[in-house]
Amino acid sequence: MSTLPPCPKCQSAYTYEDGQLLVCPECAHEWSASAEAPGAGEEAKVIRDAVGNTLQDGDTVSVIKDLKVKGSSLVVKVGTKVKGIRLVDGDHDIDCKIDGIGAMKLKSEFVKKV
């Protein structure tokens, strides 16, 4: 009985080892033997806005609450649209550039996808 995992692409049980890789003879898919389950890292990085919509790089969002800019007297007003966001790891998971204020990081809980 083989202890190798089934093919992640077609679920075939006939996988075999070829050096450092595992190979499926039915669909010719190759993957690393030491790799985690496929998609495991992607699922952990799902970032949602205040209403539950999934955010992606390049989305346009709207601020849902007045946000004070730390170390400044500036305020990001409700309804401010932010174009071309970039998702990053950390507590503040949106990296963006706001007109009139500049580059800053936002928390996804204070924005809504437009």
UniProtKB/TrEMBL annotation:
Residues 47-114 form the Protein YjdM C-terminal domain. It comes from the Bacteria. Transmembrane segments: none annotated. SUPFAM superfamilies: Prokaryotic SH3-related domain (SSF82057), Zinc beta-ribbon (SSF57783). Residues 3-32 form the Protein YjdM N-terminal domain. Pfam families: YjdM, Zn_Ribbon_YjdM. InterPro entries: YjdM, YjdM_C, YjdM_N. PANTHER family: PROTEIN YJDM (PTHR30305:SF3), PROTEIN YJDM-RELATED (PTHR30305). Belongs to the YjdM family. This is Alkylphosphonate utilization protein. It comes from Pseudomonas benzenivorans.
